[in-house]
Amino acid sequence: MMHVPLYSFSAFSNTGKTTFIEKLVAELKSRNLRVAVLKHDSHGFEMDREGKDTWRFTQAGADMVAIVSDRQTAVLENRKLTREDALSFFHDVDVILTEGYKFADCPKIAIYREASGNGLAGEPEDFEAIVTDAPFDTKVPQFPLDDVLPFAEYLLKDMQQRREA
Question: Which CATH number characterizes residue 26's domain?
Fold first, then answer.
């Protein structure tokens, strides 16, 4: 089984992680890559709507609920999973992007927006690359926050190098 490249995007809230990843996914998809994204939410979330069948099954005590249609499938598991367990759900993809795993054991990409008022979510050298709207004095490769193309090219080259290693 071939190892799927995994990259984790790290930044503080309201920095632009989701927007940048959204643009990156669209760019990678335009190049015919299959892309998976895993989002970590430390605040909790609710995917199902009250009153719908799957919600009712969960309320009745089901540990897992799945719903399948002609175009999509969703599985709700009512327990906390490790990042590794959640990643095991992904298959037949060319790359996995994660958002919100600041301490991930994989290449980390920093997102920095000067107007957010927050710094980097670590030291510059903790990251493989920095996507930013304000340059840092570091040898870590830096890419523009408002233009996903240069970073997409970098990512594709890095993926190729990791496959060959």
Answer: 3.40.50.300
Per-residue pLDDT averaged across 107-120, rounded? 94
CB 96 within 8 A of CB 6: yes
111-116 mean pLDDT = 95
Report the candidate in 6, 103, 94, 100 with the shortest Cα–Cα distance to residue 111. Answer: 100
Residue 53: inside a domain: no
Helix or strand (DSSP H, E) at 111: strand 108-112
| Structural domain contains residue 90 | yes
Question: Number of structural domains, the chain?
Answer: 1
Per-residue pLDDT at 1: 40
More confident residue, 96 or 45: 96
Look up tokens 């930044």; give the residue. Answer: 11
Residue 93, helix vs strand vs coil? coil
CA angle 15, 98, 151 (to 5 degrees): 65
